[in-house]
Amino acid sequence: MMCQSKLEKIALEHDAAKLFMRAYEQRFGIEVRHIWHNEPRRPDVSCYLGDDKLDLEIAHLYGSEAQAMEILGRELTSATRAELAVIDLLDETHERLVTALNRILAGKAKKCYDSPRVWLVIRNANPAWNATDIHSAKVEIQVPENTPFEQIWMVGDWQGSSGIVRLD
């Protein structure tokens, strides 16, 4: 039996994948269907892009660990409440977006997958940023040269309403 946090992680990955798939279909007119979850050493989810199998590795971009806990409905400790209070006083700067995104890209670039075709999909969970902010940061985003990903995409916001942005 899976623990609650593992089930929540799978649900978040599926939700992010579905948002991306819908946005990709609308933008390019190519059907993306049938999603299933994979075991470790394989990307998080698999689907079909047209008639071809495609694996998606899913990541989420948060402003901070405290913001992630708040968004995910986790109980906040006094330390995380204090961190949120400080974050609320700070401007959600362009630099913070670029730094957080570059950290995710560098970490994911080191992974290896047992899959011939993998795309990385990063879902922005920070309400201060959207696809427009991500698009304007593209010149500063450092996509590592040797990644296991055929393409790298961002879902611009939690609901996917601001669209998707290709990073590579």
What's the helix and strand layout?
Layout: H1 4-28, E1 32-37, E2 45-49, E3 52-61, H2 65-71, H3 78-89, H4 94-109, E4 118-124, H5 131-137, E5 151-155, E6 164-166
- Share in β-strands: 15-25%
Taking all residues together, what is the mean pLDDT? Answer: 85
Helix content: 25-40%
**Spatial order of the strands forming the largest sheet:** 1-2-3-4-5-6
What order do the SSEs take from the amino end to the carboxyl end, as H and E? HEEEHHHEHEE
> Treating each run of at least 4 consecutive H or I residues as one helix, how many helices?
5
- Number of beta-strand segments: 6
User: How many domain units?
Assistant: 1
Shape: globular
Low-confidence stretches: none
Computed Rg? 16 Å
What is the rounded distance between the termini? 38 Å
Structural class: alpha/beta
Largest sheet: 6 strands, mixed
Explain what this protein looks like in three dimensions.
With 168 residues, the protein is an alpha/beta fold. It has one domain. Helices cover 40% and strands 21% of the residues. It contains 5 helices and 6 strands; from the N terminus they run H-E-E-E-H-H-H-E-H-E-E. It has helices spanning 4-28, 65-71, 78-89, 94-109, 131-137, and strands spanning 32-37, 45-49, 52-61, 118-124, 151-155, 164-166. Strands 1-2-3-4-5-6 form a 6-stranded mixed sheet, with helices on both faces. The longest helix is centred in the N-terminal third of the chain and has 25 residues, at 4-28. The chain is globular and about 45 Å long. The mean pLDDT is 85.
